[in-house]
Every structure is written in C-alpha cells, then in structure tokens.
Design brief:
alpha/beta; Rossmann fold; GMP Synthetase, Chain A, domain 3; 25% helix
C-alpha cells in the first residue's frame, strides 16, 4: 500500500488506473487518525483493492473504503456516457474525498482515450461552492465554460437549481457515496448498470403542515433497475429541494404530500459494479453494509414517476420525549426561513437531555433576537422539533467540503457555547 496526499494523488491515481499497485489517499493535514485506521504496515486484505479512500460517514470515525480499479473505471465510463462523452475535468474539490478523486480519474481516462483532441469541459462542485460563486458575477460567468457541472456532497438549497439555470449553467445533481465510487444517480436517475432498491419501511414525522399531514409510501419491494440506455438528464420539480449525497425532504406534489412535511420511506440500497470491496480491517462493519455488489445506505427514500426521491437518513431520526423528530427535514425548514449563509444560518442539533432523552437546540451566528428565531420555527415545526435553547457561535464550523460539521458543533456546545433558553 502506498499512502499519498496532495500533489502526489494524480500520478498515483494514474498508476492505479494502469493496474499498478494499491494507493491510499489521505488529507495533507490532520492525517494521524487516517493513518491509525489504515495501518499501512498490515497487508491489504483484498487482492482486487486498488484504491483506499477515507470516509468519516455518519460516525465521525475514519473508515477506509476499498475500491477496485474495475469499479472506478466503471463509474468513469458510466458518467461520460450519461453526459454525452468524455471531457476534461477541472478539479475544484479536495482530492482526498471520493468526489475529488473521481474528478481526477475521469480526466485521466479522458486524456488516455482522446489524447490532446478537443473535448468538452466538466467540473464537480458542492452546493457551498456554487453558492459562493453566485455572490460574484465574474466567478459565476466562468462556470458557463463547463458543459456540465456535477453538484453533490450535500443538500441543495431551494432555489439554487433555478438560479443556476437562469445563469446559463447545466447543473447535474448527483447522489452516491464513497462506497459507490461517488455519485451513481444523476438527476434522480441511476447511471447505466446501477440498480436502486429498497429494504424495510421507516416512518418519520417532522413538521406540522397547515392542514392535515399526509404521508407517502413506496413499497419496500420497489426496484428502480439499471438503465438500459443513456437518458438525457432530467431536472427535479422546480419548487423542491434536491438530494445530492445528503438527504433532504423533497416530496413531489404529485404524490399528495406537503413539501418538507411527513413522509413514509424505505431504506435505499445501491447495486452494481461500482460497489466497494469492504472497509479496511473492519469485516463486521463490511458485513453490515455490503452483500455481493449491493450497498445498504443509511438513507431513506422512494421512487415516483421513475425518479428517486431521498427523504432523510436513518441517523437523522431521533426520539425526543417519546416522539420522532427528523432533524434533516427540520433543518430544511430552518434553511428556508434563515438561509444558508454562515452569518444567518440556524442549525438544529440534538443533545442529551435527562428528561426527554434528547432535546433539540439551535446553534447560530445570527444576531437576531431569540424570539425572532424560535417563533418562526414554531410555526412550521412540530413541537418536539422546536429548539429548546439557542447557542451562539462566532462562526459555524464546516468540513473541507463546505458541509456543516455537526460533530464539531456538539463539541463547541459541550465546551460552553453561549446558551439561551
């Protein structure tokens, strides 16, 4: 196993694609936990393993996702087919994350196949980056050079896709994870060779609609099979938020459910040649997630009109005072009220409580008075989801991909972030 980071990633990935050895990619800073997990001195347990990418997943503990070169190449080729052909890829993401690695892999394969021939340009971004680009007209204009922009890694705020279309950008939403070589569902449609399935049904209730709450249900036996052709990317309903790696509440009106309200969904599985080989030195964890080429996600969703809708994560459903609270759907409601700018965003997290088991609190750098935060939330959330305290921070902590670091937020709360009841 060769451990690489930073500028060493691209040449190492070129060797991987050529079938030469096994490479583990780690961040340039804060690499100690990843090295402890990888244990480079211990031989790699899978002969087919060509690439190990670290992921923290929902637990915050690094895990080593082992991928074969066949899986990586399968996903590269499936992406290029869906987009209309290979192209040059601009890497705007951290290269120790699967999204950044796959961007480099696509570029290497395209150059390998076409050499110096003229090709379209593509890039891959997370919503935080696109949001930042929209704040600068010059930066936004630069994005029009790309024939397609893959957008994934976290939930897309309401209105972002419409803003991108108005700016002349072709944004393709993606859903997937490190265990599937990144996004394998584009604009809610599986890539060629990818199959979406469902396991057990899970019911969650999160927000109080103006009228009667109506849930939606897609049977647990439902299957969205691998595509047999390369359909054109389809955009989701214009008024809805979009899931791209992290779940969001997104229930189509055609199914008779209020957006961001209650829903019933099933655990999503993703199957195909892109499936990982297992977790580095963690056979029990592997067995809980992987069966053959089927990856069990922690995401909940259903299919409507042939499209995948992801409604939340099993990890996001917490019990407060005996009632289920879907934190992700509650966060979507908060984002619609206060936006996603770091200075105004209101983040809802669960913390231990001796009376309720857990209680919901708000964390923010917003300077609004408490009442102007709590009262609007109380109008759109059910009582258990309404925050019981507000903790004030100078700034919200983010991950390298621009996602909220909820683990860090909880650490700051434990360390004494200013609470107000």
């Amino acid at each position: 196993m060769q451990v690489v980071s930073g500028e060493g990633v691209r040449p190492a990935l070129r060797r991987v694609l050529a079938g030469e050895g096994c490479v583990a990619v780690i961040p340039e800073k804060g690499a100690e936990p990843y090295l402890r997990m990888l244990r480079p001195e211990v031989p790699v347990e899978h002969d087919e393993c060509a690439l190990i990418v670290a992921t923290s997943g929902a637990t915050g503990d690094p895990k080593g996702v082992m991928l074969s070169v066949d899986a990586v190449r399968f996903m590269v080729e499936a992406t290029h087919r869906r987009l209309g052909g290979p192209g040059r890829w601009d890497c705007a993401l951290p290269v120790h994350h699967i999204a950044g690695l796959m961007t480099i892999a696509r570029d290497l394969v395209a150059v390998e196949a076409a050499g110096s021939a003229e090709m379209p340009k593509y890039t891959s971004m997370v919503p935080a980056q696109l949001h930042q680009a929209f704040q600068n007209p010059a930066e936004s204009a630069k994005l029009r050079q790309f024939q397609a922009i893959l957008l994934g890694g976290s939930a897309i705020p309401a209105g972002m896709l419409e803003a991108a279309a108005a700016a002349g950008l072709n944004v393709v939403t993606t859903y997937g994870m490190s265990e599937t070589c990144g996004g394998c569902v584009y604009n809610r449609l599986p890539l060629d060779g990818v199959t979406i399935g469902f396991e057990k049904d899970v019911a969650v209730s999160t927000a109080s609609p103006e009228g009667e709450s109506r849930g939606t249900h897609w049977p647990s036996s439902a299957i969205l099979p691998a595509a047999t052709s390369s359909p054109q990317p389809r955009t989701p309903p214009p008024s809805s938020s979009t899931n791209v790696g992290d779940p969001v509440s997104d229930v189509p009106e055609a199914l008779g459910a209020n957006q961001g309200r209650a829903s019933v969904a099933s655990t999503i599985t993703l199957s195909g040649p892109m499936a990982f080989l297992g977790y580095r030195l963690a056979p029990e964890l592997t067995a809980a997630v992987l069966t053959g080429q089927t990856v069990r996600t922690r995401d909940l969703g259903y299919v409507a009109d042939g499209l995948l809708y992801v409604t939340g994560r099993m990890d996001d459903v917490v019990i407060s005072g005996g009632e289920n609270v879907d934190l992700h759907a509650a966060q979507q409601a908060a984002d619609r009220l206060f936006g996603i700018d770091a200075a105004t965003r209101v983040v809802l997290v669960d913390v231990p409580d001796p009376r309720f088991g857990v209680r919901i609190v708000a964390v923010t750098a917003n300077v609004l008075p408490d009442a102007q935060i709590v009262n609007p939330l109380a109008e759109v959330l059910e009582r258990p989801a309404v925050p019981k305290q507000i903790h004030r921070l100078d700034a919200l902590p983010l991950t390298a991909l621009g996602k909220l670091s909820r683990d860090k937020i909880r650490e700051l709360i434990d360390a004494g972030a200013s609470p107000r009841k």
